[in-house]
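Lab notebook, page 48
Experiment: co-folding of the full assembly
Goal: obtain a model of how the components sit together before planning crosslinking
Operator: M.T.
Materials (sequences as entered):
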Amino acid sequence: METKEWVKTASVDKFPANAGACVLVNGEQIAVFNFAEENRWYATQNQCPHKGEMAISRGLTGDSNGTPKVACPFHKKSFSLEDGTCLTDEDYELKTYPVKIEDGFVYIEIE
Amino acid sequence: MKKKIILIGNGMTGFRFCEKFVESGMSADHELLVFGEENTPAYDRVHLTSFYTGTTADELLLAPANWYADNQITLKSGDRIAAINRNEKKVISEHGHSYSYDILVLATGSSAFVPPIQGVDKKGIFVYRTFDDILAIKKYIPKATKAAVIGGGLLGLEAAKAVMDDGLKTSIIEFAPRLMPRQLDELGASMLRHKLESFDLEVLLNKSTEKILGNGKITGMQFTDGSVLETDLLVISAGIKPRDELARSCDLEVHPRGGIVVNSKMGTADESIFAIGECVVVHGMVWGLVAPCYEMAEVLIANLRNGQREFLGFDLSSKLKLIGTDVASFGHALSEPHHGRTIVYENKSRGVYKRLNVSLDGKYLLGGILVGDAEEYNLLKQIVNNKIKLPENPEDLILGSRGGGGAGISVSDLPDEAVICSCENISKKTILNAVEIDGAESVPLIKKCTKSGTGCGGCVPMLDDLLTFSMKSRGKEVRKVICEHFSYTRQELFDLIKVDEIKTYPELLKKYGTGYGCEVCKPVTASLLASIWNEVVAKHDTIQDTNDRFLANIQQRGLYSVVPRMPAGEITPEKLIVIGEVARKYDLYTKITGGQRIDMFGARVDLLPDIWEELIDAGFESGHAYGKALRTVKSCVGSTWCRFGMDDSVSFAVEIEERYKGIRAPHKIKGGVSGCVRECAEARSKDFGVIATEKGWNLFVCGNGGANPRHADLLASDLDKETVIKYIDRFIMFYIKTAEPLTRTAKWLGSMEGGLGHLRDVVVNDSLGIGEKLEADLQKLVETYQCEWKEVVNNPELRKKYRHFVNSEETDSNIKFVALRDQKMPAK
Ligand code: SRM
Ligand SMILES: Cc1cc2nc3c(=O)[nH]c(=O)nc-3n(C[C@H](O)[C@H](O)[C@H](O)COP(=O)(O)OP(=O)(O)OC[C@H]3O[C@@H](n4cnc5c(N)ncnc54)[C@H](O)[C@@H]3O)c2cc1C
Ligand code: SF4
Ligand code: FES
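Observation: model returned without errors.
Model output:
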């Protein structure tokens, strides 16, 4: 059976604007990104599927033709933050997680 | 009912067949079942050596495993076909299953030819053809100290270089009296030989191996001339042997020298069976390059769809990859004297040899050879293939643009049908259409739009030439715009930031860009802001590349390295002790770098500020090893101690390093100062190098080590120190203002109109009248320097950014170490 829960992570001010940070949720490393102008938030696994480095949260964010994305700092593979697909190399994919902001805290929904 | 096609062989040709099958829409009325003996789906065998040097198998796959199923193709990898039953139209797999076909395609490729030498089955002897071969060699390497390669042809040389780069002393053994006998003539081969010997590859010619020595495993080789070579690893690359065993066993015709015989439509005598690729003989020969094999796959697909295409032969021009020097041959490279005249250019000191074979009437180019410098390869090949009429002085084609004139043949002279990309078979017209009709006004867009340049990559320079030609002919400027978010060049952004006094990335994006930016324009802007305003980079941390975001180089497992500055490589015993103590306390791996200083590796991100705090307390500063900034100014010991020293190179190197430290540029900058022409500081491999003479200092610029080494050129001689500094000031600032992003000075000079002459005019003769301005701008950067690590260490807000989790004090459990020679390294 699958159970999902919203987990409270840290207060909004702990996260940099227009960049990523990593949180530990039930033992899992999750990268959280904030597109500050529109207050949009995204979350993905922190591990890069390319070489397994725990690094996605340290990547540069931006967009490719309007799709919000992050580029892994190691070898610059970039991933859509909307659905985790790899934009530079079809073989890879990132798991994404729903994020919500409540009372100034960032929550992530995880299984 | 759908017709059943069975394809045996999932190599490069087999894959191209699958790809064309999908593109042609044949799957509507055909089923395709593919058998591949290897365990992985088809991969890029042409770049097998990059698998040797670390590219992963996944990265070399021509398509991911699920591609086949997604396109209604059934792929059985690791499943060899053992027999063909022509009467029942069935194939039988190694596992005993049988499958029936309506159409059977053989694309079984070839295997490495292993000559019948006595003892060739001993351990330590390998071929170089598949992933498995490479894995086996890699596994054996640690047991070996000395390697040999049989075969001095294209593949043998590639294999030899790879094994040598893996740390083994390597010998190449060639049966013929010269290297690459099929591509090169005597002079070209001997030039290549000297070049290889200068890399420490031993070349043994006229050698025929009689037997392999050793008890169970190879220890040496004995040649027919009685000589013996000790070696404990041998790679055999003596040619290829078409895999025609299946065809033989079912009585299809094979060539006396091997290879399945097919007609120009790729058919065998059995009208249900076809064969393509390296396993066939067509027009009397085996075509051992990928482009003709691809052409065969395309011809066959067309014919299966009722076309009437024929394989008419193919250009066998080839360029040697990866050997560290250019080698190419094209057209009729070795044509006999009575067929034409030859023009030869030889420059022994530069290791360059070029030969052109011109028709007797002097009108056409028949072929040629290039060793040491193959820049003109693409164009010359086109001139041959398209029978373009030669200019009056064909020698200009290889002597380069004397006085800037060139030989008068350029991409514009090629006919529309000229095949520019032979891997993908893309013509000049298709490329120009992409540029002019589809608006693909950059090389990456052309690649995306046409697929040209995505195979071996050899045609990419020509794509660039075609782009420039097309843009110029339409009165358009080729502007290297930064990325999709800014349609400005780096130089334009530099001016905009300066004139509008823009201080942050969001300001710039809002005013001149679109979207949210990306990993290209963010670091470029960060670099520009630093070069113009010189504020601490930590202020703009979220637009920096990782290394600049955390002011340290990211390494395996997301660890970081710590490199304090040691100007000119000079360090006091007290400071050495501090380094030792800090490294011991934080358990860091220490190593002397190639830049004459000490690197401490393996620091967790959260410890960086603590480590730097201790270093700064002891008087150290950031070494900017992570920045596109001045790295080191290497020195030699110079006249203070050295008996040959003309001047005090260490003091001058310290002065120069202190002056330019921290300055951000389009790419990293390195310097060197040597005390005399013996050049122990290797200054001529640096962006700027200074060498003491009897009368002062010589200044060299635009050298480079790295992937494309280049010796620096002399900019001015016998200068006093003040003038050296003045010129370097101008040089660096001119570079900062005008270079493309991530372009080292060597490459920048390479694409500068007017070349070194122009650079000298600007820097030495101040032809643009901007000398003083450049000096003033640089002086401002010198005056506003601050150690960025000091800034972080003393600022609690900035320090907080150095942690792995924002919601936990835990550290990254992914980081683990193992022991390494009394120190440690990250666990894999
Ligand atoms: C530590 C060091 C190797 C060593 O143990 O000796 C080193 C390490 C790295 N080099 Fe280097 N290079 C080091 C000396 C050199 C040298 C030798 C020299 O400077 O005399 C060269 C050739 C000279 C030159 O640059 O022209 C060199 C040419 C490169 C290149 C190729 C540059 C090129 O133009 O082709 C790269 C890749 C790049 O910058 O894009 C590179 C990139 C790198 C990076 C930064 C790769 C990366 O981005 O992670 C490595 C960081 C490792 C780490 O974890 O810290 N490193 N690298 C040396 C540090 C010198 C220092 O004290 O700062
Ligand atoms: C190191 C190296 C470098 C090279 N460099 C270049 C270069 O720079 N330029 C260039 O043009 N060419 C180069 N080549 C040559 C190029 O790789 C070949 O021309 C090309 O791979 C031929 O494709 P193919 O599909 O015909 O054969 P292959 O790629 O050999 O594929 C045949 C496949 O069929 C499989 N097979 C055979 N028999 C059976 C069976 N009975 N059942 C099932 N499967 C079977 C084999 O296992 C193999 O996987 C290079 C080759 C090597 C090894
Ligand atoms: S230190 Fe330099 S040469 Fe060595 S692996 Fe890293 S980038 Fe390559
Ligand atoms: S580890 Fe992320 S791109 Fe290579």
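Interpretation: Residues A 48, 50-51, 53, 72, 74-75, 77 surround FE2/S2 (inorganic) cluster (ligand 4) (CB under 6 Å).
Next step: discuss with group before ordering constructs.
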